[in-house]
Amino acid sequence: MKLQEIIDKIESFAPLAMACEGDNPGLMFGKRDKEIERVLVALDVDMGVIREAAEKGADLIVTHHPLMFDPIRQINEETPAGRCLLELAENDIALYSAHTNLDSAKGGLNDIFADKLGISGTKPIEITYTDENGTDYGIGRVGAIEKETTLADFATFVCKCFDLPSTNFVGDGNAKVKTVAVCSGSGADMISKKLAAEADVYVTGDVKYSGARKFASLDLNLITAGHYETEICAMEVFKEILSGCPLEIICSKANKNVFNYTEG
Ligand code: FE
Question: What is the pTM of this model?
Answer without folding.
Answer: 0.96
